[in-house]
Amino acid sequence: MTKIVNSWNDFDPLKHVIVGRADHSCIPPEEPATSEKVPIDSPMRGSWGPRPLETVEKANAQLDNLVKILEERGVKVDRPTPLQWNAPVNTPDFRTESMMTAMPPRDVLLTIGNEIVEAAMSFRCRYWEYLAYRPLLERYFDEDPEFLWSQAPRPRLSDASYKHNYYDEQISLEERLERTAAKDFVTTEKEILFDAADVLRLGKDLFIQHGLTTNRKAMEWFKRRYPDLRVHAVNFPGDPYPIHIDATFVPLRPGLIINNPHRRLPDDQRAVFEKNGWEIVDAAQPAHTEPPPLCYSSVWLSMNCLVLDHKTVIVEGSEVHQQEQMDKLGMNVIPIDFRDAYPFGGGLHCATADVNREGDCEEYFTDTAFGDVTLV
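RE: above sequence
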């Protein structure tokens, strides 16, 4: 029996990873969570059901190519077992008419050291999504005697978990940004809610984005669940739809982070990094002015890259500006086509979940004046 699960950050040498699949993916119907997270002018509003087969096949071809690239570099790759997503979700608290996808494992699974946590997500359509990864987690548990398999408290996602009448089609972008700056989001503090993709792992420190997919109660849960780690809440007031940290704040190696220039980390939170010797640089502008059709995400998936080690990064093939910046920052760039996969759940980082990276739990922040937890 050998050690399978170990990962403390997103930049140490990648040895084992899960890559998603687009099979049977659906556009879910509107619900309290998605109503606020899908932009008002998105063509995804008002239409739901199975995604066209042609788009699924194109996405799977690019996901399969990512697997090929990783395996050629010696990375072990596992894949989830998709469910038939075009089926309703029924619980004592709600019903929604379809599920979603198994393309973005980064949203569902959070690896902290030798533990993988199944997240407590706020989308009702994603209530059963963790089941696509159960065969893999079962195998890791059988084969790795040190692997810890955890599930965060399962949210009920009743109406009490959302603010009533929060969503308003008439709200302006300025008003939306005011809400974001005031940390006013559609989810309440009734129960623990978080997506794994909101958690930035930097060894002994966890930086968690407070936004539309993760609430303060989740941060309190992390604080209690990991008393030996430091938990810090971060937010990005310039983002009108703050969903997931990995298209906003991306570490490339110890001491270097790229930050979305439209969603800059506030100065007081930025100081935590700078006084510990970290450089934060504005990410390059996207090469595109619009996301692909039927895509939830913004054009800033350009910076949603997959770091293989301290000097190697995979970047979407058409994002030439981001590739050029990575080169100037001393990274060896591997460009691959991935825009056909974007609509199914995000970019290269979203489409993967760490199982094993070399390295231990490092302490990158020696100036602890900011304390063990900062709740914003």
